[in-house]
Design brief:
There is one protein chain. The chain is built from six helices and seven strands. By secondary structure, it is α+β, with helices and mostly antiparallel strands. The chain has one domain (2-166): Gcn5-related N-acetyltransferase (GNAT) (Aminopeptidase, 3-Layer(aba) Sandwich), CATH 3.40.630.30. It has a seven-stranded mixed sheet with strand order 1-2-3-4-5-7-6. Helix 4 links the parallel strand 4 and strand 5 (110-116). Helix 1 packs across helix 3 (40-49). The two termini are 27 Å apart.
């Protein structure tokens, strides 16, 4: 089940992020595995703005989450994380589809995100979810700024890609 994030969920989101990040160590990206999750303050801003959703089990405890921004008039998936114990069950796709439906209700027909191009559960996964790479010359000002901040944070040590999914069925 997907629902909006509650204030009481915020620490669980950090736990999900740490668990999801830990598997990066297994593929030679220990810096990503060690990266701290978003602060409670940052998560609270998304929760307060109504741009944070969780997947919960029967116990109503979050096991995955997604955060969205509005960047240059499009919905930008800032973060999506699924606890690794629940990977490959369609939870990430369900969260993406939830954000897509929300985006359309808000009058935005495009989703964007940035991700690691070669990590199997990143770039190749998003291709299967209908996203397509955005050529560098087509990056909007907001997406260029996101990529600049990511590079400053050291994420460009590994191949990165900006991706777009047009919600009318074309990419």
């Amino acid at each position: 089940m997907i629902r909006t994030v509650r204030v009481s969920d915020l620490p669980a989101l950090q736990d999900i992020e740490r668990a999801a990040g830990s598997i990066f160590a297994d593929i030679g990206m220990p810096e990503i595995a060690a990266d701290e999750p978003p602060s409670l303050s940052t998560l609270s801003r998304y929760q307060h703005a109504g741009r944070a959703w969780v997947w919960v089990g029967a116990d109503n405890r979050p096991t995955a989450y997604v955060l969205a921004d509005v960047v240059d008039g499009n919905t930008h998936i800032e973060q999506i994380s699924v606890h690794p114990n629940l990977a490959r069950r369609g939870i990430g796709k369900a969260l993406i589809d939830h954000v897509a439906a929300w985006s359309l209700r808000e009058g935005r027909a495009t989703l964007t995100l940035t991700t690691f191009a070669e990590v199997p559960w990143n770039g190749p996964y998003y291709l299967r979810c209908g996203f397509r790479p955005v050529p560098v010359e087509e990056l909007t000002p907001g997406l260029r700024e996101i990529r600049r901040r990511e590079a400053e944070h050291g994420l460009d040590r590994w191949p990165r890609v900006t991706m777009r999914r047009t919600l009318n069925g074309t990419a």
